[in-house]
């Protein structure tokens, strides 16, 4: 297992290089450039040329990329093109923990709730309970997050002013964004949990175990859940990714200074250095989540051996 | 086993959560802070580059100009107590206050102004603020070509600043000095701070001092106790960055903000609301919203008759009355009310669909015009609110198939600058400083980088040059009116509406002053919070 | 602990299981048993029909404005009232259905096919192939969707086809990952080993044994993805690179009416309801289809 983990970590290096190259090329190919965006209506070719030279944007792309990789190798993320006084590392260092905390809380909430609901639905003796949970799951998956956010804000911040409308800093600021972020993963996880538990219950070995007279609860825990856990674990990883990505809507609507806001601004302003850093952060996050998913996968599934 | 799987997930999450630093301080500020939002993260706080709507208001609060504007747009002394103008109108002698201090504690002197203006106009810096404010000063051209400084700026003693103008480009000098970015900066701070000095401090002498900038989150300014006009009566200004106007409104309603711009979609409802209606402030804004026609891409626009037909097929009065419920007014001319010398009473081109069709017949293009696409500036929903009815009117009155084109801001700006991408564009222009030159010289002069409709009229250029060399303001304005009328009838652009400001202000906020320029308010040095 | 698991000893290809009844009978049987899904299917058929013929029937067009009749309440002339430019809201909702459904539908088909092929190959072959393919997926999943879309629509222009292309690009990696993890577990089942031992070719094994066994998962995913894609299209419209006005899509209508949310909530509520109901229906039907296609998976079978 240790060798496998080392191997996977080693594999992350080409992944990072690929991501760096991809984002670099994509950013520079996309129409629009940071100089004109910053100068806006005050752009003149002369003023643009000065700024472009200061930022090194007038050099050939391969040179810019090489310099960027060189800086990266020395763990220097550079400074923002749009705001040269700002170190990208500081910007990311400030924004990332906020998004991670939000996503972490949302997925923790979603995992517990989703698994309980899914297992409840799959093992419910009364079909009505299963149906209710399933309808709830479908509704949860179907509601756009900006609609749920609007409804929750209207109810709990405007109608009954229990929570702040938006903003960041106080513990109360977490409640609504986490709730909005968790709704879809709850449904997601509940659905997958229900499907895999339902499927596992029909596997022959479970039937065998049942026919041998094992008690229902024991069968559930020993055989069913264990085998049903595989897809659910993958889903938790995905849900974490979803929560990170879902932050694009939530951080804007709730005015939270997280990494998604940084990324959106960087994309809209073509702030290449910041954009590259956010993409690398996302790549790292997803790599770590995937690694943990795969490791737990191997651990849970006896038929997979590395 | 299954539970362990869940635990792995949960551990991952707890690790992620725990990795972050402890929660920040609780939100909400002590009462004496004045709270008003910004629409976005400022790209810079260097005053000579702070020309966008997110940076300008912050710079406006921290820095001082030589002369400033009152709420009616009249010039007032600021750093200059008074000034004398030589009989030929070319030499300005400013008598400076001797009680103005930089936030670092040093007294502001005439030498600081000279240093600041030379930094502003520096060929290495290429600030557009410089090309507005100091380009009309004697010696500016030589400075661009390598001279050591701007010869026309001298500081005979610490409280006297003398500026000699270039006769050909003298126009509107005092108005240009009132540009919010024409400020004095503390050279110690700028020189010592290096590239990006403004990220952690300011170099100003204004009523508020830079305190904190949490990127994408908020800025905090503290009041400056040694401000020359007396320390502000609020502890400071708290400026959260709130990108959605609906969120701003929600926070205002939840008493988390004191002063916000009203989202246009809610204007009517707010006006009708018995409580909120009383908190509503509306007043003219020096902004024109227009449709630019680009003959380089849509070649039919090379024919004056076609351009004029398009201008005459748009019912501005109807758009004003219905879509903008009379809040924005029809624009018959280009330069908005609020700019000194506004061309009141000018009728412009009439709304005349039959006449417009006749013009197309004369041009021989009736029914033969290719589909037209209107690109919309994504900066505000207002451009789409205008473009939709304009498209329908052009289709109905002229039989032209009109499509709209949305895009994101970076793309829009880059394509506008290329001038060879958009057939036409719906956008707006707001005053940086209250002067005719801010409109006609910028938007329509043949060599201006902002002349995105590629208007080339030797007659128009000549009139603008004459206006800038006019010996006095009255003659200058008279010439500008001729240029403006020419541009309206030539129709390189179709001015459609003049806009207004609409703000919500809590009743406990007193002493706030408004202006038609920039963001609509004057620095909050006189604001009090009376709860 | 691991040895206690016994797997079925038959090479039972689930998709090959005999169906008990003829098709219409089965459909009727299913509709009786799963009323919500049947209602949802009926709703989708209705929405599709309305999207096809509705705009022709309402005697208006999506861009006909009447500036003297803005924000009208429902009336005989305008069953759902008018919008901020006096356009008939019903016509726009119906036309919006046409755009949203065709964009979402085309994108989901595209990304499912790409994701299925990619994930099946990676999961089945394993080893270096799997590594290479999945690292590309990792790369794309971490890549900001919006930038990819800006790139595609910025370079090729915001036509409907390019929007679909951008959406396919952004959605397929997640599908590939899900499919791959399922295929990894399937390839170790005895029926796959059995088929291999019997000398079946790889394409045949994939087609006969692997793909049918991930079909239910693919359908569950695709129904989830319809909602994601319709919303993604709305997001593209929001930042200005989606469907171009005055053409409506539901997402576009929702975002445009956001500024009237407090004053004229109907402008937002109507397209939002249409969007939500359609997505809910897709999910219900998808779920039911999943159960229908995979005989091992039966509602209430536990």
Secondary structure tally, helices of chain B: 18
Supply Rg of chain B: 25 Å
* Mean pLDDT, all residues of chain C: 79
The share of residues in helices of chain C is: 55-70%
Strands of chain C, count? 0
Counted beta strands of chain B? 19
* Helix and strand element order of chain C: HHHHHHHHHH
Strand content of chain B: 15-25%
Supply the helix-strand structural class of chain C: mainly alpha
Q: What is the oligomeric state here? A: heterotrimer
Shape assignment of chain B? globular
In short:
The complex is a heterotrimer of chains A (306), B (531) and C (302). Chain A is mostly helical and 306 residues long.
Task: Give an account of the 3D structure.
- Chain A is mostly helical.
- Chain A folds into two domains: 2-88, no CATH class; 96-300, MetI-like fold (Orthogonal Bundle).
- Chain A has twelve helices and no strands.
- In chain A, helix 5 (88-123) packs antiparallel against helix 6, helix 7 (145-159) crosses helix 8 and helix 10 runs antiparallel to helix 12.
- The model of chain A has no long low-confidence stretch (mean pLDDT 80).
- Chain B starts with a helix and ends with a strand.
- In chain B, 31% of the residues lie in helices and 19% in strands.
- Chain B is α+β, with helices and mostly antiparallel strands.
- Chain B folds into three domains: 1-62 and 192-258 and 506-531, Periplasmic binding protein-like II (D-Maltodextrin-Binding Protein, domain 2), CATH 3.40.190.10; 65-99 and 109-183, Dipeptide-binding Protein, domain 1 (Alpha-Beta Complex), CATH 3.90.76.10; 284-500, Dipeptide-binding Protein, Domain 3 (Dipeptide-binding Protein, domain 3).
- Chain B has helices at residues 2-19, 56-62, 110-120, 128-133, 140-144, 173-177, 187-193, 245-253, 267-272, 276-279, 304-312, 316-321, 353-363, 381-398, 409-418, 440-444, 458-469, 473-490; strands spanning 33-35, 67-69, 75-77, 80-85, 91-96, 153-157, 160-164, 208-214, 218-223, 236-240, 259-261, 280-293, 329-330, 372-376, 402-405, 424-430, 493-505, 509-510, 528-529.
- Chain C has a single domain, classed as Orthogonal Bundle (MetI-like fold).
- The radius of gyration of chain C is 23 Å and the shape is globular.
- The two termini of chain C are 25 Å apart.
- By secondary structure, chain C is mostly helical.
- Chains B and C meet through helix 8, helix 14 and strand 15 of B and loops of C.
């Amino acid at each position: 297992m240790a060798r496998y983990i080392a191997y996977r970590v080693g594999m992350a290096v080409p992944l990072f290089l690929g991501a760096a190259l991809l984002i670099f090329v994509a950013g520079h190919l996309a129409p629009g450039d940071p100089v004109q965006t910053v100068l806006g209506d005050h752009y003149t070719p002369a003023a643009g040329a000065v700024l472009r030279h200061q930022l090194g944007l007038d050099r050939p792309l391969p040179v810019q990329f090489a310099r960027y990789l060189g800086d990266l190798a020395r763990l220097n993320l550079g400074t923002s093109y749009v705001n040269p006084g700002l170190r990208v590392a500081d910007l990311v260092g400030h924004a990332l923990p906020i998004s991670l905390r939000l996503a972490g809380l949302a997925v923790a909430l979603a995992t517990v709730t989703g698994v309980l609901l899914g297992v409840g639905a799959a093992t419910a003796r009364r079909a009505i309970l299963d149906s209710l949970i399933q309808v709830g799951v479908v509704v949860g998956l179907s509601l756009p997050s900006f609609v749920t956010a609007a409804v929750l804000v209207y109810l709990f911040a405007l109608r009954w002013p229990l929570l702040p409308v938006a903003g960041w800093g106080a513990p109360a600021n977490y409640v609504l964004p986490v709730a909005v972020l968790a709704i879809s993963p709850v449904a997601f996880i509940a659905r997958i949990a229900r499907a895999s538990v339902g499927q596992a219950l029909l596997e022959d070995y479970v039937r065998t175990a049942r026919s041998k007279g094992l008690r229902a609860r024991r069968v559930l825990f020993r055989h069913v859940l264990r085998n049903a856990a595989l897809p659910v674990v993958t889903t938790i990883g995905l849900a974490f990714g979803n929560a990170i990505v879902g932050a694009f809507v939530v951080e804007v609507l709730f005015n939270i200074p997280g990494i998604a806001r940084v990324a959106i601004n960087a994309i809209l302003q073509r702030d290449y250095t910041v954009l590259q850093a956010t993409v690398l952060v996302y790549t790292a996050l997803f790599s770590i989540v995937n690694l943990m998913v795969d490791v737990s996968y191997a651990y849970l599934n006896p038929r997979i051996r590395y | 086993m299954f539970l362990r799987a869940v635990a792995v997930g949960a551990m991952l999450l707890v690790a992620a959560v725990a990795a972050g630093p402890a929660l920040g301080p609780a939100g909400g500020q002590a009462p004496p802070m004045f709270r008003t939002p910004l629409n976005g993260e400022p790209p810079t706080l260097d005053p000579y580059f702070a020309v966008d709507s997110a940076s300008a208001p912050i710079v406006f609060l921290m820095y001082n100009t030589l002369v400033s504007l009152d709420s009616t747009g009249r010039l007032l002394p600021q750093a200059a107590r008074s000034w004398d103008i030589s009989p030929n109108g070319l030499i300005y002698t400013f008598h400076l206050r001797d009680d103005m201090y930089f936030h670092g504690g040093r007294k502001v002197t005439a030498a600081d102004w000279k240093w600041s203006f030379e930094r502003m106009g520096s060929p290495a810096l290429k600030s557009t603020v410089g090309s507005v404010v100091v380009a009309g000063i004697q010696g500016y051209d030589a400075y661009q070509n390598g001279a050591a400084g701007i010869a026309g700026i001298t500081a005979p003693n610490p409280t006297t600043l003398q500026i000699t103008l270039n006769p050909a480009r003298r126009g509107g000098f005092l108005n240009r000095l009132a540009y919010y970015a024409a400020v004095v900066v503390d050279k110690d701070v700028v020189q010592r701070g290096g590239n990006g000095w403004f990220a952690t401090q300011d170099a100003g002498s204004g009523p508020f001092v830079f305190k904190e900038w949490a990127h994408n989150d908020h800025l905090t300014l503290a009041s400056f106790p040694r401000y020359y006009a007396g320390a502000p009566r609020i502890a400071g200004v708290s400026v959260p960055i709130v990108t959605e106007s609906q969120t701003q409104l929600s926070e205002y309603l939840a008493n988390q903000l004191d002063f916000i711009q009203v989202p246009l979609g809610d204007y009517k409802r707010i006006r009708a609301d018995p409580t909120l209606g009383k908190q509503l402030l509306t007043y003219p804004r020096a902004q024109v919203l227009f449709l630019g026609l680009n003959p380089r891409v849509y070649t039919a626009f090379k024919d004056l008759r076609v351009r004029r037909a398009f201008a005459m097929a748009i019912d501005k009065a109807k758009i004003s009355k219905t879509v903008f419920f009379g809040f924005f007014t029809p624009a018959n001319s280009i330069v908005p009310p609020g700019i000194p010398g506004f061309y009141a009473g000018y009728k412009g081109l009439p709304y005349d669909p039959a006449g417009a069709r006749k013009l197309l017949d004369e041009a021989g293009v009736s029914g033969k015009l290719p589909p037209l696409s209107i690109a919309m500036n994504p900066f505000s929903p207002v451009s789409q609110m205008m473009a939709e009815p304009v498209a329908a009117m052009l289709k109905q009155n002229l039989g032209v198939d009109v499509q709209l084109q949305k895009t994101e801001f970076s793309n829009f700006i880059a394509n506008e600058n290329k001038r060879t991408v958009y057939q036409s564009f719906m956008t707006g222009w707001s005053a940086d400083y209250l002067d005719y030159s801010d409109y006609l010289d910028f938007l329509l002069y043949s060599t201006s980088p902002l002349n995105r409709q590629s208007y080339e009229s030797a007659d128009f250029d000549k009139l603008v040059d004459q206006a800038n060399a006019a010996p006095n303001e009255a003659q200058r304005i008279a010439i500008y009116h001729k240029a403006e009328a020419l541009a309206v009838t030539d129709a390189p652009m179709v001015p459609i509406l003049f806009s207004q400001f609409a703000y919500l202000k809590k009743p406990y906020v007193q002493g706030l002053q408004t202006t038609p320029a920039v963001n609509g308010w004057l620095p909050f040095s006189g604001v009090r919070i009376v709860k | 602990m691991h040895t206690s698991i016994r797997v079925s000893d038959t090479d039972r290809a689930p998709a090959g299981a005999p169906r008990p009844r003829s098709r219409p009978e089965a459909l009727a049987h299913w509709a009786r048993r799963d009323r919500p899904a049947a209602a949802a299917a009926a709703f989708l058929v209705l929405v599709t029909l309305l999207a096809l013929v509705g705009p022709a029937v309402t005697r208006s067009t999506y861009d006909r404005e009447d500036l003297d009749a803005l924000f009208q309440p429902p009336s005989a002339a305008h069953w759902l009232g008018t919008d901020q430019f006096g356009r008939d809201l019903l016509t726009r909702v119906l036309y919006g259905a046409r755009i949203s459904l065709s964009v979402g539908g085309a994108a989901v088909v595209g990304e499912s096919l790409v994701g299925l092929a990619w994930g099946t190959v990676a999961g089945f072959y394993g080893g270096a192939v799997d590594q290479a393919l999945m690292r590309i997926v990792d790369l794309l999943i971490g890549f900001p969707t919006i930038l990819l879309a800006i790139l595609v629509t910025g370079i090729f222009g915001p036509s409907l086809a390019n929007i679909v292309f951008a959406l396919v690009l952004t959605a397929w990696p997640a599908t590939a990952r899900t499919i791959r993890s399922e295929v990894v577990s399937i390839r170790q089942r005895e029926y796959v080993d059995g088929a291999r031992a019997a000398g079946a070719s790889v394409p045949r094994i994939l087609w006969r044994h692997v793909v049918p066994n991930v079909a239910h998962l693919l359908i569950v995913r695709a129904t989830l993805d319809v909602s994601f894609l319709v919303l993604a299209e709305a997001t593209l419209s929001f930042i200005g690179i989606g469907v171009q006005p005055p053409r409506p899509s539901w997402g576009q209508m929702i975002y445009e009416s956001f500024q009237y949310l407090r004053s004229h909530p109907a402008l937002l509520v109507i397209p939002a309801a249409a969007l939500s109901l359609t997505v809910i229906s897709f999910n219900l039907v998808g779920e039911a289809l999943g159960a229908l296609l995979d005989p091992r998976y039966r509602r209430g079978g536990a």
